[in-house]
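Study this chain:
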Amino acid sequence: MTRTISLQDQQFILHPSGAIYWPQQSLLLISDVHLGKVSHFRKFGAAVPVSAIRRNFEMLGETMAFFNPKKICFLGDLFHSYLNGEWAFFESWVQSSNLEIILVSGNHDIISPLKYQALGIKVVHEWELQGFLLTHHPEERTGFYNFSGHMHPAVTLRGKGRQSLRLPCFYLRKMQLILPAFGAFTGTHVFEMEQDDEAFAIADATVIKI
């Protein structure tokens, strides 16, 4: 189940995959997919199931089918490291997607921009759009509402006794929204909520306000 919020007189739909859809722009925002990470870790002996590779692309396909956007913007860390076998899967996905793709480069995006450009993908350091600033690292800039990733935000819910549950979340601060990591094989960083902060956690394929 999705959750719709209003920011700067614009509507945004939070999806349980970790993506955000901006209807007025027909734009899908996704951060920290970390494609290639599974293959990277398997190369060095980590017992990561191959199915995790397929899951990332399944999630991309499912989310795109749900919203049917005209554009998609990756807010950094699309690929985890250097080229590996997952690039071929990515090429096939791009060629079948038939939509405009923008990559806001992140600290893990070390693959040459020329490789992306050859697929028709525009690579930028940041993107200013309708009073919104799209970046990888969270930023504060006068006059802009910032969408970013990088932090892999999560919150911890505590029950009676010592019970606790860590959930990825969309984390909202003043003039700033940090997206959860989209990738199926990524960690999380727990935020301690401060006054006026908001969090929308992802649990059981549902986005819930904390």
